[in-house]
Amino acid sequence: MTSTKRKPPPPKKPPQARDALRFSFGLRLGLAFVVAVVAYLFTNGANAPNRPAFEVVRIPGKGKGLIAQRDIQQGELLIREKPLFRVPSSTTESPQQLVWKLLQATSAEGQAAFWDLSYVNLPETVTQRDHVALAIFETNAVAAGQQVGIFPGMARLNHGCSSAFNAVYTWRESEQMLYVHALRNISKGQELLTTYTDTKRPRNERRAFLSSHYGFECTCAVCSLDNAGSLASDRRLTSISEFYRYFATWGNGDITGVEAIEAINNIWKLEEEEGYWSERGRLAADAVWIAAAHSDFSAVRSWARLAAKWYTIELGGDSETVLEVVRFAANPKAHTAWNSREPLPVGGPWPSAG
Ligand SMILES: C[S@@+](CC[C@H](N)C(=O)[O-])C[C@H]1O[C@@H](n2cnc3c(N)ncnc32)[C@H](O)[C@@H]1O
């Protein structure tokens, strides 16, 4: 018989030592976590999409305005806002009385937001509250369907011309809500700008309008171009407007579908050169209409895809308008205008439908 001598088990570490080990392991894990979080905040956190996209700040020479607090992506939803109140675009009632009446009917919080807004075009000697209310309304109200409304959040957006504005707003009747989307990528620190008027006109005309209606001399990136740059921009913008007027004559049959689509392509090219990205969904949707009227199946598809892309940026992918053009891309014959003119291949933007 062989005797086997068992090895004694290793001595158990005293409890304090085990706790100390666990503690130091936990400490290292905790430290690693903190380092990872700090690193994330440095690299991505400042741009995390759930961080507010912008803040309201004072901007020299402009009053208040909106500055991007992080990089913003083209098409990002920036503001979704209910109106404080809306008034009809035209009314027989005195605008002053109407604004005053509607203002009185809003909440105390709403009224405070309203009185905080800026106004122009009122002599300092005029201090009656209803006069001031009307001046605030006229300085800040924007189109909202068939009416004009006050939205205290979006009202802080200052103006930029043609290629200078980077945010667009749209009213959703079904939701009774105003949406503001980023028209292009906006870098942290840049100002968010919308446009107060159709800026497809020369600098002197734009400036005259902005000065008389909004009381400021526009010094946006386009208005600040040197003379040669400004002249080139003016020429492009004037040509764009002329092409718009020209292609609209397709409606009375003055030009062919091919000529109308050519005009749209010319607008597209000029806007590309100008850096004017707004209204592209609408323009492509007009091409869809012309192509559908002439029963050009492939052209409807191609333009409808383009319309969907640009409408998504300006209006949001879930807007009814986007869903409608997507339907036309899938089924061109479903378009209201289908086959309402003589059949004709009108042409598309085929290779660059994006
Ligand atoms: C709708 S408000 C915009 C927000 C306003 N800055 C504020 O402080 O509440 C319109 C007014 O802002 C100013 N504004 C807008 N865009 C401007 C610009 N590009 N340059 C200078 N002032 C501007 C003008 O006084 C204009 O009447």
How does this structure look, described?
The structure is a single chain. With 354 residues, this protein is α+β, with helices and mostly antiparallel strands. It has 2 domains: 54-194, SET domain (Beta-clip-like); 230-352, no CATH class. It has helices at 15-43, 95-104, 108-115, 129-140, 203-214, 227-248, 257-274, 280-293, 297-315, 320-330, and strands at 54-59, 63-68, 77-81, 85-88, 142-144, 147-150, 158-159, 167-172, 177-182, 191-194. The strands form 3 sheets. It has a 4-stranded mixed sheet, with no helix packed on it. β5 and β6 (147-150) form a beta hairpin. It is globular and about 65 Å long. The termini are far apart. Bound molecules: S-adenosylmethionine (SAM). S-adenosylmethionine (SAM) binds next to β2, α4 and β7.
Strand sequence of the main sheet, in spatial order?
A: 1-2-10-7
Bound molecules: S-adenosylmethionine
**Proportion of residues in β-strands:** 5-15%
Kindly report the average pLDDT value. 90
Keywords: Membrane, Transmembrane, Transmembrane helix
Organism: Mycena indigotica
Pfam family, one: SET
InterPro entries: SET_dom, SET_dom_sf, SET_domain_protein
Characteristics of this structure?
globular, 2 domains, three-stranded antiparallel beta sheet, 10 helices, disordered N terminus, 354 residues, binds S-adenosylmethionine, Beta-clip-like
Please sum up the structure shown.
By secondary structure, the protein is of the alpha+beta class. Helices cover 44% and strands 13% of the residues.
